[in-house]
C-alpha cells in the first residue's frame, strides 16, 4: 500500500533524508509527519496544492482547517501586499486593530477581545484569565480535545489507553498538570462528578474536531452550562477550529454565551492570528500590573488586515452557504459509496467539515473513537493521495471545503475515496 505513496514522491523522500539531519523527523510540527516520510509541498492555489515531485492535489486539509478562503486568495494577496509595504510590524499598537476587534466582537457577540498569534497562546492565556477572575485553580478538559501544545492542557489528547490522566508528551511534569481534570466528552454523569467549587473553568472544543469530528450532544452542553453557573466556574469555548465553520462559530450555532471564547485558524485568511474574547468583567482584568497578556507578533498589521478582509468580504453568510452545500455533497457521496460497496462506514458532517469512520457508528467520545481499527483508514488515505486528493489532514482530522472548491472537485474527491474505500475493504 505504501508503494502507492513512495513511487510518486521520490523527491519528498530525498528532502526528508536531508531535512531530518536538522529538524527532528524533518518537520516543524509533529502533526505534519506521517510514515514513511512526510510530503513536502511547494505551493498552493485555490483548492490545490503541489508537492516537490510536481504532483497536484485537491486539498481538503486546507492547512488543518485554516484556508476556507482557498490557497493564495487574490484578495488576501492584494491586502497583505499593500500592508507589507507599510511595515510588517510596527511595535506599538497598529491603528486598524480596534476596527478588527469591533468586527469580531459584533460577529461573535463578545464584549471585548485581545489578540494573540496562535491557538496555543490563546488557550494558555484564557485559562490564566479564568483563574484570575474566579481565584480558583482547577481546569476541566475533555479527553481527546486538543487545545494546543502548552503543558497544562496537553493532557489525554490522544492517549493509547484512555481513562487515566496522562500527559500527551514527554517532558510535562506532574506538577504542570496537577490542576487539570480530565473527563469524558458527551457524558453528563462523568462531568457532574468533577464539576465543583474548586473549578475555575471548563474548556472544550464545542464540537470535537481533533478526534475526527464528533457530534455534540446538546443536552450535555446544556448540563455543562447549568453546572458551571451552579458551581461558579467559567465556560471556555475553544473555537480555534469551530469558529470558522459557521458564520458566528459554534456559539452562534448552539445559541449559547460562553464566558470566554478562543478563535484562530480560519479567521485571518491564512495569516497567523488568534483571539481571546468574552465577558467584559473578565477581560477588564487584563492590563499592566494585573493579568498578563503579551506577544511581539500579536495583531501585526499583516494579520489584522488579512482578517478584516476575510471576515467582511470573503467569509460572508453566502460563502458559508456555498461551503456547506458542497460539504453536504461529500457527505451524501460517502454514504452512497458505503452502501454501494457494502462497507461499514459512518459519516458525520458539521458545516464545511466532515469525517468518516470505518465503523458502523460515529463515535461519541474518545474511548469510542480510539476503539476503531484505523488500518482501513490508512489504505483509503494513501489511495486517495495517489489519485491526487488530500481527503483530510489525518485519521483524527476532518475534511474542510473552501470557497474555491467546485462541484467537480467534490466529484473527484468521491471518485478517489471510492477507490480508497474499495481497497480498504479488500
Ligand atoms: N485549539 C484547537 C481546537 C485546535 O484545533 C488547535 C490546533 O489544531 C489549537 C487549539 C492550537 O492552535 P495552534 O496550532 O494555532 O497553536
TrEMBL record:
GO molecular function, one term: glutamate-1-semialdehyde 2,1-aminomutase activity
Species per Swiss-Prot/TrEMBL record: Acidianus ambivalens
Known cofactor(s): pyridoxal 5'-phosphate
Family of the protein in this entry: Belongs to the class-III pyridoxal-phosphate-dependent aminotransferase family.
Domain of life: Archaea
A Pfam family reported for this protein in Swiss-Prot or TrEMBL: Aminotran_3
KW Isomerase (keyword) present: yes
Catalysis: reaction(s): (S)-4-amino-5-oxopentanoate = 5-aminolevulinate
Name assigned to this protein: Aminotransferase class III-fold pyridoxal phosphate-dependent enzyme
Stretches assigned to coiled coil: none
Keywords: Aminotransferase, Isomerase, Pyridoxal phosphate, Transferase
CDD domains registered for this protein in UniProt: OAT_like
